[in-house]
Design brief:
With 721 residues, the protein is an alpha+beta fold. Helix content is 39%, strand content 11%. β4 and β5 form a beta hairpin. It is elongated, with a radius of gyration of 44 Å.
Length: 721
């Protein structure tokens, strides 16, 4: 039957009735306990602002600290990036050095900033490394570049001693000291600083700002380099007195050994120099340097670097100077040589220069000992008189220079090369040299009698002898032997002042010579070096010499020399015959003249004394066959000498010097004439013809043997002027 849709369709009933969906029951809400508002107490209300302020300050400090740490890190990072490889920091000198060798090639002096060559902290003697750390920074291998404990300790010491906290002890670590040696990375600029000394003084300034920058730079170094690399820079750049830059230079200069071989006493002495290099330099005061080294030895023992036995042994045998350092020879000589070399190769050099010189250490000591002997035994105590000595070979090679009584000096006023003093009768040999070259003979006769010359603008002038006496006719030999003034003036006027000047200038007297007749009596000025060089020209037979001290100059690592000097011989000034006669005449000065106190038994010598007006200057210059020695004595302020003439103390200094200089040398004869008998007025005379003396020095005038004619002619012409 069809379903017309009015009834529900027949569907089987479900076997099981459908359960109603279960709905989750809501969890009961926890009832919040009612918050009971606590009433603020009076104390709480009172502290609230302070608590708030404390929390604010702490947050501020934290943020500021974070910013400071960040800024510090950035600053350290900046310097870190600027630091070069450690090899570039080892030699930081702005100028080079000059090492001087003597005639045998042995080092005897240094100038400029000495640098012995780069050394590493791992290469130097362990004793040296330990001495430096023990003395300067015992916590060097434990800190990060700065030591708060060290700074606090230094401030405490400064305050206890009445100084400011940052004055005196600085508490700087080796790293900080190295930063200062590097000038915190600021290079030397000659446009900014006039001198290197000014640059270094600026680097050593101690201010709060600079100390802060120094600490930052030190931290950067600690980050960039190892401890041994930092110590390497320090060991190479530290100044240790006497021009020594670095411990290698100091070890070579003071002890003559490498820093690799330093023993405990030597290491302690060098480490002790770091406190005050000039004060504790052993070349200035060896005892003071040794006392300071004992302090360092104690520190090394206290810190366990050496045992008590080793410390006692080091104190019992303190370090001593090498022979070269002990001598400190040739300070005046070195200064003079440095002045003769172009500045860019000496004082202003940026290279390391080696100069081989004519210097003789033995002769230098001989001259110094001679001066010391005379001033100790013959000069009154407290006298401020000075003296100078020059020792020279006949070709002008200077062997020794003593520029004053204080011999262990450098940069001092050199009275041998810088002082221009009136020469007095020491000038007379040039008058007679001109005469000999124009035909006068050693036995020519001139009258020692009063003579008056009219000097334009000054009126009449009458020279007098030293003893105010006149001896009548005498030979030129006797006139020079007795240093007769009237005869010297007459001969000078006879041969012509221009000729005398020409001879003196040709022999090397490079100063303005007097124009008047007093020229013959040494009214002109000269230096001892020039005068000694001029006498060398007489010894070598009449040829001029130029005094020289440099034999060869080269750069330190270059085998080929830049400058070479092979000798100082120049042009001929007078004939060999004239020189031989003049040498004989000067020989008589020593044997029986004004220079008798310089006589040396068994050795021929020739010389001339010189004493200026009022005894302000006293000279003695002479020679043997091997050496020329010049001596000057006087006061720096021109105070007259008391009871001293050229034939007195200067002659004795000369003799003491020459005896020491000639030790071990054969007694060679002088290059001079040897007359059969001493010349006298009873002999025969030779002289130029009238009028020839005023001409130029050329040819030979004819001889005249009539003694009476000679005397009358010369007197007539001289007295008539």
């Amino acid at each position: 039957m069809a379903n017309n849709g009015s009834k529900k369709p027949l569907v089987a009933e479900r076997r099981y009735p459908q359960k109603a969906a279960e709905t989750p029951k809501p969890k009961p809400k926890k009832r919040k306990k009612p918050v009971r508002k606590q009433k603020k107490t009076f104390l709480g209300r009172l502290m609230a602002p302070f608590v708030f302020l404390f929390r604010f300050v702490m947050k501020l400090i934290f943020r500021l600290t974070a910013l400071a740490v960040l800024a510090l890190a950035m600053a350290v990072g900046y310097f870190y990036m600027q630091l070069p490889p450690v090899e570039e920091l080892v030699d930081g000198r702005t100028r080079g050095s000059v090492t001087l060798l003597d005639r045998e090639g042995v080092v005897f002096s240094w100038r400029g900033d000495q640098f012995g060559g780069p050394i590493r902290a791992t290469q130097v003697s362990p004793h040296l490394k330990n001495a430096v750390v023990a003395t300067e920074d015992k916590r060097f291998y434990r800190h990060l570049g700065i030591s708060p404990r060290g700074i606090a300790s230094a401030m405490r010491i400064n305050l206890r001693e009445g100084r400011g906290a940052l004055q005196g002890n600085g508490g700087s670590t080796i790293t900080q000291q190295t930063a200062k040696l590097l000038c915190l990375g600021v290079p030397f600029d000659p446009k900014t600083w006039e001198t290197e000394a000014a640059y270094e003084a600026d680097c050593r300034r101690t201010t709060k700002t600079r100390k802060a920058k120094e600490a930052i730079y030190a931290l950067a170094m600690e980050a960039k380099y190892t401890k041994d690399e930092i110590l390497t820079v320090y060991l190479n750049r530290a100044y240790l007195g006497a021009g020594a830059r670095g411990f290698e230079a100091a070890s070579q200069l003071y002890f003559g050994v490498s820093s690799r071989e330093s023993n405990v006493p030597q290491a302690a002495m060098m480490a002790g120099l770091l406190k005050a290099p000039s004060t504790y330099a052993p070349t200035n005061n060896l005892k003071r340097a040794q006392d300071r080294a004992s302090v360092v030895i104690n520190l090394m023992q206290d810190q366990g670097y050496i045992s008590a036995t080793e410390a006692a042994a080091a104190k019992a045998a303190p370090a001593t100077l090498s022979a070269a350092a002990k001598a400190q020879a040739g300070g005046y000589f070195t200064d003079w040589v440095m002045d003769t070399v172009p500045a860019f190769l000496s004082g202003d050099t940026t290279e390391d220069v080696v100069i081989k010189s004519t210097f003789d250490s033995r002769l230098q000591k001989a001259a110094e000992d001679a001066m010391d002997y005379i001033f100790t035994n013959k000069v009154r105590e407290g006298s401020e008189a000075q003296a100078a000595i020059v020792v020279m070979s006949a070709d002008g090679a200077v062997r020794a220079v003593v520029g004053g009584r204080e011999t262990k000096v450098s940069g001092a006023f050199n009275r041998a090369t810088q002082a221009k003093r009136q020469t007095g009768s020491a000038f007379k040999p040039f008058v007679y040299a001109a005469a000999m070259d124009l035909g006068f003979q050693f036995d020519s006769i001139v009258d020692d009698a009063p003579v008056t010359l009219n000097i334009p603008g000054s009126g009449p002038w009458t020279p007098q002898n030293y003893d105010r006496k006149y001896r009548g006719p005498m030979t030129l030999t006797d006139a020079l032997r007795a240093s007769i003034n009237t005869v010297a003036v007459k001969v000078s006027e006879e041969v012509g002042r221009d000729n005398v000047k020409a001879v003196a200038e040709a022999f090397g007297i490079d100063n303005k010579l007097a124009d008047g007749p007093a020229l013959a009596l040494g009214a002109s000025e000269s230096t001892l070096l020039e005068m000694t060089g001029a006498y060398a020209g007489i010894l070598n037979g009449g040829r001029a010499v130029v005094p020289y001290g440099l034999s060869e100059l080269r750069l330190k690592n270059d085998a080929n020399p830049i400058l070479v000097q092979e000798g100082g011989m120049g042009d001929r000034v007078i004939s060999p015959e004239a020189a031989a006669q003049l040498t004989y005449m000067m020989h008589r000065v020593v044997t029986d003249g004004t220079g008798r106190r310089a006589f040396i038994d068994g050795r021929e010598a020739a010389a001339k004394t010189g004493t200026t007006q009022a005894s302000r200057d006293a000279w003695f210059i002479g020679f043997t066959a091997q050496y020329v020695v010049g001596v000057w004595m006087g006061y720096d302020d021109n105070t007259p000498l008391t009871g001293v003439t050229g034939g007195g103390l200067p002659a004795e200094i000369w003799k003491e010097t020459m005896v020491r200089v000639s030790e071990g040398l054969p007694a060679e004869p002088l290059p001079m004439i040897r007359p059969a008998r001493p010349p006298s007025v009873e002999g025969f005379a030779q002289r130029p013809q009238p009028g020839q003396g005023q001409g130029q020095r050329q040819g030979r005038p004819r001889q005249n043997n009539n003694v009476e004619e000679v005397i009358l002619d010369i007197l007539g012409r001289l007295l008539g002027r």
